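Progress report, Aim 2. The chain analyzed during this reporting quarter is listed below.
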Amino acid sequence: MPSPLGFDPIERAGELWEKKWPGEPGAVYASMRAVTSIMRAHQILIAELDAMLRPHGITFSRYEALVLLVHSQGGALPLSKIGERLQVHATSVTNVIDRLEAAGLVRREPNPRDGRGTLAVITDAGRAVAEKATADFNAARFGLSALPQPELDTLFDILRALRLDAGDFVDEG
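Predicted structure tokens for the chain:
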């Protein structure tokens, strides 16, 4: 990891933004700083989570698929359902399942309810990896230990509103 900067580059970018476009409303500067901070936080979290997963031989996207299978009925789901639940393209699901299968963490089986479909089924080894990785994540509070629970709850609510506005899901409430 590179040495930390002696200043906040996102705050500096906001100051430069404000000088370049002085007539814009304050919400524009706040939006630019917020989205840049979200993108940087994403980079930081993915790097930290992937580092925690490296000893388990998986990436975060593979972890997500394993956990989804752990929580599914019978430890199996159609590939199409995995893509739907993880909100990723079918090609991404195929790639993730290919790699998990090569590692012996899942196996493919024909879907008995759909003769053309395929199920991903978690193996005992996959369950063990998911359990150990989850224990590591829980101990590290998923890389968010710098934030107390009330702030985590607020952050979730803020990001949930963003996802809802984007049509990511339909609000049940």
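Residues 58-164 form a domain with the Arc Repressor Mutant, subunit A fold (CATH 1.10.10.10). The two ends are 43 Å apart (CA to CA). These observations will guide the mutagenesis work planned for the next reporting period.
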